[in-house]
## 1
Amino acid sequence: MSQSNSLSEQSRILSERLKGIPEAVVRDVQPALIKGAEEVAATIRALVPVDEGDLKASVTVTAPGQTTPAYAEGGGKRTAGTNQALVTVGNERVRHGHLQEFGTVKQEAQPFLRPGFRLAKPKALRRIQRAVGIAVRKAAQGSS
C-alpha cells in the first residue's frame, strides 16, 4: 500500500466521519433540548397568574419533529425542527396568554412568559452546550 493510498483512505474515513457528526450530534442533543424546554415551561408555569388554572395548564413543550397545539403562540400550528424544542402557551380553549403578558386597557400586564424564559434560559443553555460538547467529542471518536 503506497503513501498516497493511505492518505486517500484516511481522507475517505475522515469524510465519512464528518458526514455523520451533524446527525449524531443532533440526535444526542435532543434529550437536552427537551429537558431545557421542560425547565423553561416549569418556570413559566410557576409565574403564571392563576385564576382558574387553564392558562397554566396550557403551557406545553413540543419536542423536535412534533407540532404545537392549535392556537398556541404564533396563532397556529408549528412543527419544531430537528434541533428545536418549543414552549408555547395557549390552545383551542385558552387564547388569552398574550393579554395576561402584555395587559389590556382594562387590565394591567402580568408578565410570566418572558420573565420565565429569562430566568430558566441560562441553565437550559448550559445543559444544551454540555450536551453538544459531549456529542461532538463522541462523534469525533467514532463511537456515535
Note: The radius of gyration is 21 Å.
## 2
Amino acid sequence: MKTITEFMTADHTACDDEFAHAEEAALANNWSKAETAFNKFRDDMAHHFKMEEEVLFPALKSAGGPAGPVHVMLMEHAQIKELLKQMAEAVAQKNAKSYGGLSETLLIVLQQHNHKEENILYAIADEILAQERDALLERMQAV
C-alpha cells in the first residue's frame, strides 16, 4: 500500500484538477459546467478535510505527533472552507469576476497549505504512524 504522503498527495492532485475545471468553466461563463465542477471540487475538498480531521490528525496527535503543525493545518482548513463558501456564492450569482478573484486567493492558500502538508506533516505522519499506516489509510478511505 502507499505511504500517507503518496496517498494524500494524490488526493491533493485530484482536488487541484477539479479546482482547475471549475475555474475554467466559471471564467468562460459556462455556469452549468462551473456549478457541477465547483460542487465536485467542494465535495472532494470536504472529503479530504474529513480524512485529515477525523482520522489522520487525531491519530498523529494521539501517537505523540506535533500539535503545532496540526493546529496550523486546522486553521488553514477553516480559511479554505470560508473561501469555498464565498466561491459558492459567486457561482450562484454567476459572477465570474468575484469567482476569479476568490479563485486566485484560494490557489495561493492551497499551494502553501499543500506544500506544508506534503513536505512536512505527511512525512512526520509516515514516520510516526508507520506501524499502523495500512489500517489508517483504510480508515481514511472509508470516511
Note: The domain at 4-142 is CATH 1.20.120.520 (Four Helix Bundle (Hemerythrin (Met), subunit A)).
## 3
Amino acid sequence: MAYLDVNNICVSYGRNQALNNISMKAEKGQIVTVIGANGAGKSTLINAISGVLRYSGKISFDGKPLPYPAYKAACSGVIQIPEGRKIFPNISVAENLILGGYALRDKSQFESRLQAVYELFPVLKDRKEQAGGSLSGGEQQMLAISRGLMSNPSLLLLDEPSLGLAPLVIRDVFNLIKTVNAQGVTVILVEQNAKQALELADWAYVLENGVFVAEGSGEDLLADDVVRRAYLGVRDAT
C-alpha cells in the first residue's frame, strides 16, 4: 500500500460533481504534483485529503484510514498550506508560528521546531514581532509554509503556493519545497504553474473536470505533446 492512497473519492457541491471517482497514490518521500486549469477540482482534491471537505470513497495514510475532519488529519501528520496563504494578518509572525505548533504531536519539540523554522527562514526571525499582514507576498507564503512545518508534518499539502507571486519569488518558493522534501517530508503539490511543478515532481497527475486524464513522471508529462500544448503554452510548428 502506498504512503498516501486515495481510492475512488467523489465530492459534490449540490448537483455539481467536483471530483468523480478520483484515485491517486504517493510514496513516502515523493513530491507528487497535480496540475490542471481553474475549476478542474485541484483545491477540492486537497481539501478532501486534508479533511476540510466530506467525500465518498477511501483515503488511507501510512497504512491507516486517514481520520476526518481536518484537525484529526493534522494531528496524524497531514498538514495543508491553503491557497492564498491565509495567515493571521493582525498578529505577529511569532504568534502565527505558535498557532502552527498546535498540532505538534510531541509538545516537547516546540522550541526545536521553532528554531528549525527560523534557520530555514531567517527573515521570519528578523521580523518575528511584525504583524503577519505587514510582510510582502513572498514572505507571507514563507510564513504560511513555516506555520505548517511547526507541526512537524509527515505529509505536506500545498495548494497553489505560487499564486500571486513575482517570478523570482516563485523560484524561491519552489526551491523551498525541494528543501522541505529533502528533509523527509512527502509533498502533494497542487499548482497552475505547470512547468515548474512538473520539473519538481517525482510523479504527476493532470486533472480535468474532476477526473484524471493523464499521469506519469514529471519528466514524461513535460515531454507529452498534449500536456505541452494544453498547460505549457507550446504550439505546434507551422
Note: The chain has one domain: 4-231.
## 4
Amino acid sequence: MEAGVRSSSAYAVEAHGLIKQFGSRRGLDGVDLAVPAGAFLSIFGPNGAGKTTLLRMLALLSRPTRGSLSILGVDALDDPDALRSRIGLISHKSMLYGDLTARENLEFFSSLYGEPNRARIDELLRLVELDHRRNDCVRTYSRGMQQRLSIARALVNDPDLVLLDEPYSGLDPHAAELFDELIGRVRDGRTFIMVSHDLRKGYDMCTHALILARGKVVVCAEKAQIDAAAFRDLYLATVGMGVA
C-alpha cells in the first residue's frame, strides 16, 4: 500500500457485476470496478451512461439491484452505516442551507457524526478561505464561495473517500482555479472519484480513468497505461453513442 493511504484495504472500491434496474431499463449493466486506495478516478461518458447512478451507489444513496460492492474494505450492502462517516460528497449542488451561516452549516453536518468538532470547523473555514465570512448567511455567497464551502462540508467528517459529481458546473475560470487548488491541498491520503463532462480537466486530474456507456464499462485503466490521444478518440466515439 502507498505511504499516506489511510484505507485498511488495498482497494478503496471493489465492485463486481453491479446492476441497477429502472423498470425495463438498466442504469448499470454488469459494472466491475477496482479503485486503488489513494487513487483519483475520473468517470466519463455520454448523458444516460450511468455515471450518476454509479456515484449515487458509491455515496450509499442507492443500492444495486444485483452485484457486490465493497468500499474501504467494508461490505457496503451489508453494513452501510459503518461507512457513512468515511465518505464525503461534493456535487454541482451545494447541499448547504442558505439561511444558515457557514459556521452553522459546518456545525450541523459535523453533528451528524457526533459532537461538532469546532477546532476542525475553524481549520476548514481557513482552508477554504472563508473564515472572514463565517458568520454570513450562505445565501449571500457567490457560486464559487458556495462550492468552496461545499468542500469544507464534505471534509468535516475527515473522510477517506471523496466523491465529486460535476463539481465545476457553473464555476467561472477563477472559481474553478481556486477549486483546483483546494482539492490539491486535501488530496494526500484520500481516494477521489469524480464524474466529469470535461475530458481535459478530468483527465488532467486523475490517476485512473473510466468511460461508461449504456451502463457498461468501455474502458477502465491507470492513466500511466493509457495513450492520451487514443483515449480522447475513444471518448469522443463513445459520446457519439448517445443516451442509453
Note: Confidence is low (pLDDT under 50) at residues 1-8.
